C-alpha cells in the first residue's frame, strides 16, 4: 500500500476563539479517542479570541470542537473513523453558542514507526528533542479516513478528507503531509 496520509490540527488562526472547561470533564485523551462518551454535554466557557471557526481548540489539549459545516463536510465526503459528542460552549457573557460538537476519533492504527523518522535539521544545528515524520505501518491501519496511532494524540486523515476540507474552505485547520510533521520526543 502507498496511501497519502496527513496530520490534521487546528490552524492557529489569529483571533480564533478558544474554550476552557467550565466544569468536570472526562479525560480529554479518552474523549478524543472515543473511549468515553459523556452522559451530558461537556460544558465549556470562552477563554480567548473573537472569531468562531470550523475547527476550535480548547485548553484541554486533546479536546477539539467541530462546526456543523465541518460535520457536513466529513459526512458528504463519506469519511469514516469519527463520531461526535455533545458540548455546551458559552461566549464571554455566558450565552450559549450553538452549532458545535466535540470530535472523537475512533479510527486506529498501530504505533508511530519511530525508525522511519529523521532528525530535525535546522541548517546550523539539529534539534535533539524532535523528529520529522509521522509514519505508521499501513498493515496495522483499520482503513478509516480519520484515525489515530495507538500511541499518539495526532489526528491523521486520508487524502479524501484533506481534499474535502480544502475544497470546502474549512477554517482554522492545518493539514500537513505526515512525512513533514515534527514530533516531539
What can you see in these coordinates?
- The chain has 185 residues and is mainly beta.
- 13% of the residues lie in helices and 37% in strands.
- The chain has 3 helices and 14 strands.
- It has helices at residues 28-33, 68-76, 159-167; strands at 5-10, 18-21, 42-48, 55-57, 64-67, 82-90, 100-105, 107-109, 118-121, 126-132, 146-149, 155-158, 173-177, 182-184.
- A 6-stranded mixed beta sheet has the order 2-3-6-7-5-4.
- β9 and β10 (126-132) form a beta hairpin.
- The two termini are 27 Å apart.
- 31% of the residues are buried.
In short:
The protein has 185 residues and is mostly beta strands.
Give the radius of gyration.
17 Å
What's the tally of helices?
A: 3
Principal-axes geometry comes out as globular
Q: Span between N and C termini? A: 27 Å
Beta-strand residue percentage: 35-45%
Widest sheet: strand ordering: 2-3-6-7-5-4
> Strand tally, please?
14
Which runs of at least 5 residues are low in confidence (pLDDT < 50)? none
